[in-house]
Give the backbone structure.
Amino acid sequence: MPPVPTIGFVLDVTIAGTALAAGLVAAAGAARILRVLLHGRRARAERAMRPMVLAVAAGADIPPGLTSARGEPGRAAERIVFAYLPQVRGEAAVSLAGVLARRGTVARILRRTHSPRAHRRARAAERLGLIASPEAELRLAELVTGDQSPEVRIVATRALGKTGSAAAARTLLHSLSRPSPVPEGVVASALLELGPEAVPGLRAELAGGRRQRAMAANVLGLLDELPAWEGLVDNVASGNVEVRTSAARALGRLGLPQAIGAVTACLDPAEDPALRAAAARALGRIGNPASARPLAACLEDPHYWVAHNAAMALAEIGGAGVTELSLAAAGLGGGAAHAREALARRALARGERPAAPAAGSAPAAGPAPAPSAGAAGPAAGRAGGAARPARQGGR
Amino acid sequence: VPVAAATIRGLAWFCIGYFVVLNSAYLMLLALAAGNAIRDRSRLRFAGLAEIFASPLAPPMSLIVPVRDMAELIAGSTRGLLGLRYPEFEVIVVDDGSTDATFSRLQAEFGLVGVDKVIRDNLVTAGRVLSVHAPRDGANLLVIRKQAGGSPADAVNVGVNAARYPLVCRVDADTYLDPDALLTVAKPFIEDPAGVVAAGATVRVANGSEVRCGRVTRPRVAGGWLLPIQAAEYLRSFLLGRAGWSQIRGMLFISGAFAVYRRDVFELVGGFDPGSDGDDLEMTMRMHRRLRDERRPYRIGFVPEPCCWRVVPHGYRRLAEQRARWSGVLAEALWAQRAMLLNPSYGRIGLLVLPFYLAFELVSAVVELLAVAVVAAGLLLGFLGPGLALLFAVAGLGYGAFLTIVSVITEELTYHRYHSWRDFALLVYAAVAENAGFRQLHAWWRLRGMAGAVLRHRANWAEEPGMRGRGEPAFGMPARERRAGVR
């Protein structure tokens, strides 16, 4: 058994521990006071610098006070410039970036992108995106493709999207073929942020690798790039399900009736359910009455999302689509349940009161469905998004 | 007598050693979490939340709110959820057989009308769905009324069956989310879409705070004895404890008060177990086991801030029930997943996290009470000198208080959500006061919970923390908060 420590020793330990805790509390209290003081100091400096920054953004020459300010006023000027940069475009953005260049801020940030600490590199990358100078863009491209930290690559990707250059689009698309690429959603968001500048690169990639084609199709659809429709139709008919699904989705967003044939072909029961669900949704967005029949044929589909999207697409088409839904809703099968749901949602979207849920209808969820007649539709498979369509109702 | 004296001295030394190891382990977690908190603060500047909010590619999310007999709170809470910042989401309130005015409040507030809805049956559920309702103005809200299933787990499973979106988020109705909470918690899914299967966030104590339209607008620490202690406890447990575990990829579970799951993985593991009291803990452990069995790479994310705020019990009885339930749940979950314990196939979860939870989170209640008994008996019988007793107090209680103080200070220096000096002082006071009585009471409640688990006592909705008993004030919330927060 270890020797019992003397009371004196234990008291010493207690006093030391208490003193440490009290010191930490006192330090936190001091930090509180310091925070208040610093806040006031920063606010005063910002009040002094803001009119100068706003004048530069409005087209005035850069005053010497802005470039020569050091210490807290200098930091305040930089904070204000970075706060306004995302909100301005064109000449104003160039002028504000000029303030940073003259202050030496750009060079300092570029140096920071070589910091051994990932979060510092990421912070610098974010700021380079706002500056958007050619040298900033070049360094961001290096970070997107070469930085070892995923966090830095993601931030640099987002930042590159803010530079608004066509070369950035190519860098982003090529980064997808690297061994550990930035997640596709982040790249797609950056491409969207680039806007029309990204279009030539995206259209070229419609004939590229699998990942690039899927990405290009998605983003072109989101950018409403109508002239790209033919390339998208080619991709809908291509071999890869992911690419075809993205292309079908994009054609739906473009809403061109020329694409109906290619998209309708994707509804074939032999096709992948994810593709069929995307195609059904796309046909709803295109909104052509000619799609009503093929969509109505999908209402009884065993795959939940195919049937659900087909019903919603019919509601979106209106006219012939609603007629098909009304016919289906009068039945008792799974298609009837989807049709009633779609009609109800259509009514709510139009500010109308939906038809009362069918009397005596019963729940779908649960292993023990209601015993009432006409309650549940035919059970339709289980895993992978299958459903047991049924009427919900009763108030 | 010599044998008894030796036994007591031996037990005293065991308890001292146990507490030193336990508190040192917590100190290491705190160090990891504090470092992360500092980095996290600087990351907020380039978090890209504005980009996520503006992006049509952000994964849409279904928020599922299980409720039962929460008439006073539900309308304000739902309104708060509908006002969150996120590109595309729906709120699904699942009324699990309420016997009060829960549904009629929702109906009056949102102009609900009955609609047809096809609900999948991917997850097995117990309570039958009675009806589905949507607002007349087309808002992204769905209210499902169902027969009582006996637990929130069943209600959440029904909600997931009805969910449209690939991410499902469980939110308790007595929880208030910060405006950017969804954007922040979705970030791990966006930045690692293949790896992240679930994500949780910090939960803080809402009692005492100003709440408007379902949002905590001014965080405060409530006065009294139990509430500041719980506020400090939650800080230590979530902001630093779990953040520490997340740094070493050892998140054993995420709080069901606010948790986001990938719907496909949620369905793969069968959703919540309606028979389990601690649905969130049990489900997350099952997720670990299933994904490791299938050798699928995965990650459970944790975001320290922004966070969600939860109303905690303010009375002894409810708090005792809650803590006993948590302890019983932990015991049951560890027993159910005992195959993972010390099993190298389950990596750090089996070799490090589960043994830690068993040895320190579960068994500490026994050691805590044993230590009190040993020291008291030793002093009374004269077997222990004052030096050893004092050493015990320093190693067990003093060290513990020190850890909580460090947690409070880390919060103060990083996230700084409590602005008043009074709140800071209350948290420091709570860090010390916790050790004088509350800790021992807590150990007793936990011991009862473990015993209850052994005897297979099951809690139900009525024992859920925050679930209002008849005739009691809503969620133990002081009148001032009810006036401010709940319309």
